[in-house]
């Protein structure tokens, strides 16, 4: 390998592309997680957050993760979770919604404004959480989906925003609090 900085960057990118291709093939065999919730990653940047969300999704038992208009990403930060959580790929949010709308899910958009606090509601077993782009938010007009509910994560700091992978982890944790698995309950209960 050439020691030129650009050559090193190209080499790392090529390695990431190879990991992605290999892990995407393995993902075909992924089994749904222990819970019924689904995540929709709507136009997220394909960098570091997507694989971290797969890692948390595997830890919290996500049924599957739908990726809307998200290109190749390096699965290395997922620490192997990309091959365990079923991934569904869509060109647009409308395509994703069409796939899921008749499955009995309640859709929740995570956004800080004009929303119900996550800790104030009981999440239905069949919950679908939509996380928008880190800078631009969701890619669709919410008014086109009047049955979607809006959730926010209560915060007390001056900045009313969280990293998308952190927000995904918090909502998955809260879902697990609302719907604990029998195996996760302590023997003393």
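-> sequence recovered:
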């Amino acid at each position: 390998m050439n020691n030129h900085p650009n050559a090193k960057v190209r080499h790392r990118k090529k390695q990431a592309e190879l990991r992605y291709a290999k892990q995407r093939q393995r993902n075909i065999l992924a089994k749904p997680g222990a819970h019924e919730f689904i995540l929709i990653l709507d136009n997220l940047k394909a960098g570091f957050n997507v694989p971290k969300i797969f890692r948390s999704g595997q830890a919290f038992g996500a049924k599957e993760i739908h990726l809307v208009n998200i290109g190749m990403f390096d699965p290395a930060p997922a620490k192997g979770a990309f091959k365990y959580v079923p991934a569904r790929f869509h060109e647009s949010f409308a395509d994703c919604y069409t796939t899921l709308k008749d499955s009995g899910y309640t859709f929740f958009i995570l956004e800080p404004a004009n929303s119900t606090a996550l800790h104030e509601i009981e999440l239905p077993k069949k919950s679908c959480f939509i996380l928008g782009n880190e800078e631009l938010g969701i890619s669709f007009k919410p008014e086109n989906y009047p049955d979607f509910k809006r959730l926010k994560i209560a915060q007390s700091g001056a900045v009313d925003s969280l990293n998308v992978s952190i927000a995904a982890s918090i909502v998955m944790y809260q879902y697990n609090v609302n719907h604990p698995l029998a195996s996760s309950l302590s023997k003393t209960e």
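The domain at 5-181 is CATH 3.40.1280.10 (Alpha/beta knot).
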